[in-house]
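Please, structure for the following, as tokens.
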Amino acid sequence: MVGTLVHQLTDGASAEELMQAGMGDYYTDHGWGVYPQAAAGYPYTAASMAVKGDPVADLTEDLAAEQKARATYEKLIDICKDDKDVVDVLRYLREREVVHFQRFGEALNGVQEKLYQKNQFYMNSGNNCNTNISKN
């Protein structure tokens, strides 16, 4: 969504206008295309995803990612505070990160409750799998 927002803001800008706005390097490499990258110019890679295969570790990582995204949107809001339309989109995206954080927190609580439950096993002798074998 941020890439689309940037595209909308630069749509119709001339190469000279992009150069004056400090986007000359970006324009040289990508033209008017949307290219996901960090503010420092590092391209997006899947290396930023931390997956362990452990539900507690993975959900904790998800929680951290949502908070990092929220903090990034807050910084973008500070930078764009004079453009109400852009700020409205960024506030929506920030609120979405807050909701995602809450849902991941609920999921983590549910996983932890299951992990720390006492395991109780019951056997009903009437449902023994051998009792349903027919004899010929």
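The mean pLDDT is 85. The two ends are 68 Å apart (CA to CA).
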